[in-house]
Every structure is written in C-alpha cells, then in structure tokens.
C-alpha cells in the first residue's frame, strides 16, 4: 500500500523554513531596489501568486507602505501548449508595468521555460524599468540561460525527483517535499 499523497517523499522545508526564506527574500528585494518605490511583485499562477502577496506583506511591514502586487498567467505563452492543450487560462491582473521594477515571483525554478514565457507575456504588457526573478526553490536543471535574482533555497535534485510545494492558501499547509518519480 502506498502512502497518502501528503506524506510522500521527504520534507525539505517546513512552514518555519518557508517563512524565514520569504523574509530573507523580501529584505534582499528591498536592498537591491533601495526601498519599495516603484516595485511591482507579479506572482506566476498558481503558487507564485500567494508567495508574491506574502513577500509584499513583509516588505510593507519594513517600509510602512503598501507594495503593488498582481498575478501573471503565462499559459498562452508556453512553448508546450501542443502537449498540454487542456490548460484553462487564469486572469492576468497586472496594471501598468511601464517604468516599474517588476519582480516575477514563482515557486520552483526548474528548466526556465515558465520564466521565458513570463518574459514574453511582460513584453506584451509594457516596458518595465527592470525585471527580476524571485523563487522559493531553485532545483537546477536549467534548459535556458535564466537565473533567479532572489532564491529561498537552492535544492539540487535528480531529474527523477519532483519538488512539491504546498502552501496554506492553496493546499492547507506550508511545506516543500522531494518525491521520487512515480511515487
């Protein structure tokens, strides 16, 4: 008998680790931007959206001013639409990006293809002053020359392993697990 889905694999980040990583990333973003002025945090669907909101809340605590957030759906910009044609697009909620420092927020950075799609989507929305990337987990195995500016945890993995991120907002708990393929 196999284990239930919520206990498969091994936990590599628990709720405390995730919270600490997001606090560190928020401070790095503020330091690099020299404050919160002009920042726009764009979460990539699905789990990047709540991560962007959490980062914005932490930045607002430090800066005593709200930080703009939005969500970006890259479904129609992906290069694998032919192999996954049943995806339903989410609404993109961005506002103006012109002249702003946009921080793309994603959960796990793997091949880099999702980020490439996000950059394509941004080019259709306007011209930001700068685009940066913040990810909770960087697992390696890049297929494109893309690197995150802010990383919560570098987590070297085998190609046969999967990184499963669960967040309270979407899954009822905060954790990152490494699961063997087929588990």
Structure report:
The protein is of the alpha/beta class and 183 residues long. The protein has a domain at 16-77 and 97-158: Rossmann fold, CATH 3.40.50.2020. It has four helices and eight strands, in the order E-H-E-H-E-E-H-E-E-E-H-E. It has helices at residues 15-33, 48-63, 113-125, 168-171, and strands spanning 10-13, 39-44, 68-72, 101-109, 130-138, 150-154, 161-166, 175-180. The strands form two sheets. Strands 3-2-4-5-6 form a five-stranded parallel sheet, sandwiched between helices. It has a three-stranded antiparallel sheet with strand order 1-8-7. The radius of gyration is 16 Å and the shape is globular. The relative contact order is 0.20. The model has no long low-confidence stretch (mean pLDDT 91).
List strands and helices in order, with pairings.
Blueprint: E1 10-13, H1 15-33, E2 39-44, H2 48-63, E3 68-72, E4 101-109, H3 113-125, E5 130-138, E6 150-154, E7 161-166, H4 168-171, E8 175-180
Question: What key attributes describe this structure?
Answer:
five-stranded parallel β-sheet; three-stranded antiparallel β-sheet; globular; 183 residues; alpha/beta; 4 helices; Rossmann fold
Q: Order of strands in the sheet with the most strands?
A: 3-2-4-5-6
* Spatial separation of the terminal alpha carbons: 11 Å
Main sheet properties: 5 strands, parallel
Approximate strand percentage? 25-35%
Q: How many strands appear in the DSSP assignment?
A: 8
CATH architecture of the domain at 16-77 and 97-158: 3-Layer(aba) Sandwich
The secondary structure category is alpha/beta
Under CATH, the topology of the domain at 16-77 and 97-158 can be stated as Rossmann fold
Q: Name the shape in a single word.
A: globular
**Discrete helix count:** 4
CATH class of the domain at 16-77 and 97-158: Alpha Beta
Q: Which H/E pattern describes the elements?
A: EHEHEEHEEEHE
Q: What would you report as the Rg, rounded to the nearest angstrom? A: 16 Å
Q: Helix amount, in percent? A: 25-40%
Low-confidence stretches: none
Overall mean pLDDT: 91
**Could you state the oligomeric state of the chains shown?**
single chain
């Amino acid at each position: 008998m196999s284990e239930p889905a919520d206990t498969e694999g091994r936990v590599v980040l628990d709720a405390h680790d995730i919270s600490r990583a997001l606090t560190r990333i928020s401070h790095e973003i503020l330091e690099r931007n020299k404050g919160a002025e002009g920042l726009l945090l764009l979460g990539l669907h699905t789990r990047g959206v709540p991560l962007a909101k959490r980062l914005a809340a932490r930045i607002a605590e430090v800066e005593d001013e709200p930080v703009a957030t939005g969500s970006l759906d890259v479904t129609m910009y992906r290069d694998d639409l032919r192999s996954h044609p049943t995806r339903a697009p989410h609404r993109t909620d961005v506002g103006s990006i012109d002249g702003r420092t946009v921080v793309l927020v994603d959960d796990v950075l793997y091949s880099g293809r999702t980020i490439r799609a996000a950059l394509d989507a941004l080019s259709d929305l306007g011209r930001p002053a700068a685009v940066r990337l913040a990810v909770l987990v960087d697992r390696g195995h890049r297929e494109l020359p893309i690197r995150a500016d802010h990383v919560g945890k570098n987590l070297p993995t085998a190609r046969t392993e999967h990184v499963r991120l669960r967040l309270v907002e979407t899954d009822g708990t905060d954790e990152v697990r490494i699961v063997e393929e087929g588990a």
